[in-house]
Design brief:
By secondary structure, the chain is mainly alpha-helical. It is about 60% helix and about 0% strand.
Amino acid sequence: MSQETTRFNFPSDRTLEAREIMTYVVNALKEKGYDPVNQLVGYFISSDPTYITSYNGARGYIKRMERDELLEMILKEYCNLLN
């Protein structure tokens, strides 16, 4: 077993798309009375789309990007805030 860290590299910067998706989904979750953080954590950990409401098409909208790509963009944005 290799002890080296695996690197994930995505070819294009899709930050704007990820931001748009997350804004849309978070708003839909809030409108339906859900805690967006809890629901999104459940989705990212389990890959179960039922953590995301189908209200206003949010469940289909979040599937426009792979979970790992969305998570990468979220973490990239967060790390940029720290600098």
